[in-house]
């Protein structure tokens, strides 16, 4: 059973680009050369058959093309500006090239949209058109964004090697955040043009699997992969026909993807004892507790409250504090939740919605009604507004 | 994160730019040229940074055609140029894809430097509006 050509090329793209940049430098031109080599493969292989060593074939063609491009680029100024991204240590295994490339694409000098676009193109092996479709912007915007990102990387003086031990944690955190954002972009329920739209959530999972393969000992990478699988497992149950988001307690759990849940649980079970427990592992552990419950009523809320308590130590953002308060209410009653909620800044409509739910449970319909209406006035989602106003309507005149 | 930046003008503003004497100070050729150059450079900069999704300028409000249903079930009711001369309506927009609303605001603020006669600058403003986008909360409780 041969792998489909497109999947094979996507798999090989970062390895080939990494190998070419490691040997010859010129990240920006090399990226164009590799794109052309991939196109050549799409053109030639179906007709002449696949080469014995597809990776070597692509590296050879890309290197030849790079030489041509650099030769054609006779402008002295541009040559002076081209800082060759040479590796300081020559004998590092090829497998690391994809990882080095990923660190480069998630360089802190780039804006978030630039990091996402460049990662999808250079490491994900997507074409400019596919990246544009996935992020719902015109192709010209992505072309400019990527050109500019490459220039920024070049001007930052980055070299083609893994970050030093001193900056490793910070740099890896940026990489994981970019992967998380790609996943989130795909997870957003905005219906883009679905025609051949690259499934961003699936793409993020694929890239995170790659990072996990390259950094098998890193438990936060494991945690992120588990979090994605455990969250993605619920996606078929998340949206109603009218586009409204269905909250977890109302989802049809038979629609959840059991295989993804099993894999996610296995990963997080392996990760937790393996090293320092960071925010992705804790979020994955929380997602696992939800996914393990056969029904919403069977959810182990005390455990979820405890996990949010741990997550608060590393991430005390309003959204985490809000979820902690809700978990406390589910575990120990609405009064406990409301007491915690009072200390959380009302950063979004979700704060008012959570407060409304807890007030309703605590037997304060008038307060709950006001909070539902306050939440409805603060969300831009029409289905959600309808849901919140409908809840408020049930409580009117009590 | 995508935002739309909107700018507004009334038919009167369009007419003044078109050389009509409205009793207010007229646009000089130099002012018109400076405004045009500013807009070209502004759009160019946004395009090059990879933040620009799309930008358009809208033709004069007087060219608007409003279409409404006929409640008696007949043909749609069509009204040409439905606005009063001084009513401010959408004159142009930019859709940008940026890190967040602060960056979108920064971009909109650059429009404050658009060259124009003093009375036009005095009343100028732009709105920044998030595009509707149900971003899911990954952290579900």
Automatic annotation (TrEMBL), chain A:
<feature type="domain" description="RNA polymerase sigma factor 70 region 4 type 2">
    <location>
        <begin position="103"/>
        <end position="152"/>
    </location>
</feature>
<dbReference type="InterPro" id="IPR013325">
    <property type="entry name" value="RNA_pol_sigma_r2"/>
</dbReference>
<dbReference type="InterPro" id="IPR036388">
    <property type="entry name" value="WH-like_DNA-bd_sf"/>
</dbReference>
<dbReference type="InterPro" id="IPR007627">
    <property type="entry name" value="RNA_pol_sigma70_r2"/>
</dbReference>
<keyword id="KW-0805">Transcription regulation</keyword>
<dbReference type="Pfam" id="PF04542">
    <property type="entry name" value="Sigma70_r2"/>
</dbReference>
<comment type="similarity">
    <text>Belongs to the sigma-70 factor family. ECF subfamily.</text>
</comment>
<dbReference type="InterPro" id="IPR046531">
    <property type="entry name" value="DUF6596"/>
</dbReference>
<keyword id="KW-0804">Transcription</keyword>
<feature type="domain" description="DUF6596">
    <location>
        <begin position="171"/>
        <end position="271"/>
    </location>
</feature>
<feature type="domain" description="RNA polymerase sigma-70 region 2">
    <location>
        <begin position="8"/>
        <end position="74"/>
    </location>
</feature>
<dbReference type="GO" id="GO:0006352">
    <property type="term" value="P:DNA-templated transcription initiation"/>
</dbReference>
<dbReference type="Pfam" id="PF08281">
    <property type="entry name" value="Sigma70_r4_2"/>
</dbReference>
<dbReference type="GO" id="GO:0003677">
    <property type="term" value="F:DNA binding"/>
</dbReference>
<dbReference type="InterPro" id="IPR013324">
    <property type="entry name" value="RNA_pol_sigma_r3/r4-like"/>
</dbReference>
<dbReference type="Pfam" id="PF20239">
    <property type="entry name" value="DUF6596"/>
</dbReference>
<dbReference type="GO" id="GO:0016987">
    <property type="term" value="F:sigma factor activity"/>
</dbReference>
<dbReference type="InterPro" id="IPR013249">
    <property type="entry name" value="RNA_pol_sigma70_r4_t2"/>
</dbReference>
<keyword id="KW-0731">Sigma factor</keyword>
<protein>
    <submittedName>
        <fullName>RNA polymerase sigma factor (Sigma-70 family)</fullName>
    </submittedName>
</protein>
From TrEMBL, chain B:
<comment type="similarity">
    <text>Belongs to the YciI family.</text>
</comment>
<dbReference type="Pfam" id="PF03795">
    <property type="entry name" value="YCII"/>
</dbReference>
<feature type="domain" description="YCII-related">
    <location>
        <begin position="1"/>
        <end position="110"/>
    </location>
</feature>
<dbReference type="InterPro" id="IPR011008">
    <property type="entry name" value="Dimeric_a/b-barrel"/>
</dbReference>
<dbReference type="InterPro" id="IPR005545">
    <property type="entry name" value="YCII"/>
</dbReference>
<protein>
    <recommendedName>
        <fullName>YCII-related domain-containing protein</fullName>
    </recommendedName>
</protein>
């Amino acid at each position: 059973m041969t792998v489909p050509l497109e999947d094979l090329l996507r798999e090989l793209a970062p390895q080939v680009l990494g190998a070419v940049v490691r040997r010859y430098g010129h990240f920006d031109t090399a990226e164009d050369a590799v794109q052309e080599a991939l196109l050549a493969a799409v053109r030639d292989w179906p007709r002449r058959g696949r080469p014995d060593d597809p990776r070597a074939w692509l590296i050879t063609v890309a290197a030849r093309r790079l030489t041509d491009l650099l030769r054609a680029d006779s402008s002295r100024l541009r040559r002076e500006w081209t800082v060759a991204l040479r590796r300081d240590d020559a004998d590092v295994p090829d497998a690391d090239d994809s990882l080095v490339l990923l660190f480069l694409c998630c360089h802190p000098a780039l804006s978030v949209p630039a990091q996402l676009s460049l990662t999808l193109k250079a490491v994900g092996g997507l074409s400019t058109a596919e990246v544009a479709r996935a992020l719902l912007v015109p192709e010209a915007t992505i072309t400019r964004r990527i050109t500019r990102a490459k220039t920024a990387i070049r001007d930052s003086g980055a070299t083609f090697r893994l970050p030093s031990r001193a900056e490793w944690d910070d740099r890896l955190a940026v990489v994981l955040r970019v992967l998380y954002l790609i996943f989130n972009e795909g997870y957003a329920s905005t219906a883009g043009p679905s025609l051949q739209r690259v499934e961003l959530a699936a793409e993020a999972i694929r890239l995170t699997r790659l990072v996990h393969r390259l950094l098998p000992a890193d438990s936060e990478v494991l945690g992120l992969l588990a979090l994605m699988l455990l969250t993605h497992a619920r996606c078929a149950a998340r949206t109603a026909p009218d586009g409204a988001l269905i909250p977890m307690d109302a989802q049809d759990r038979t629609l959840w993807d059991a295989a993804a849940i099993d894999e996610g649980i296995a990963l997080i079970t392996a990760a937790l004892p393996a090293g320092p427990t960071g925010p992705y592992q804790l979020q994955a552990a929380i997602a696992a507790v939800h996914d393990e419950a056969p029904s919403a009523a069977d959810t182990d809320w005390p455990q979820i409250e405890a996990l949010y308590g741990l997550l608060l130590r590393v991430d005390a953002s309003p959204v985490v504090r809000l979820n902690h308060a809700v978990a406390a209410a589910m575990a120990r009653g609405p009064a406990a939740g409301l007491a915690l909620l009072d200390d959380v800044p009302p950063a979004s409509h979700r704060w008012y919605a959570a407060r409304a739910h807890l007030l309703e449970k605590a037997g304060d319909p008038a307060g709950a009604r006001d909070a539902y209406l306050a939440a409805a006035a603060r969300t831009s989602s029409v289905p959600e507004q309808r849901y919140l106003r409908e809840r408020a309507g049930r409580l009117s005149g009590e | 994160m995508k935002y739309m930046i909107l700018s507004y003008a009334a038919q009167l503003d369009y007419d003044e730019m078109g050389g009509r004497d409205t009793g207010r100070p007229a646009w000089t050729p130099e002012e018109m040229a400076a405004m045009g150059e500013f807009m070209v450079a502004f759009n160019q900069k946004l395009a090059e940074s990879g933040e620009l999704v799309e930008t358009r300028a809208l033709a004069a409000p007087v060219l608007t055609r409003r279409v409404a249903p006929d409640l008696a079930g007949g043909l749609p009711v069509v009204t040409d140029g439905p606005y009063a001369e001084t009513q401010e309506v959408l004159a142009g927009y930019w859709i940008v894809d940026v890190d967040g609303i602060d960056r979108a605001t920064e971009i909109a603020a650059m429009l404050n430097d658009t060259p124009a006669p003093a009375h036009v600058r005095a009343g100028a403003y732009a709105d920044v509006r998030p595009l509707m986008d149900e971003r899911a909360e990954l952290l579900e409780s």
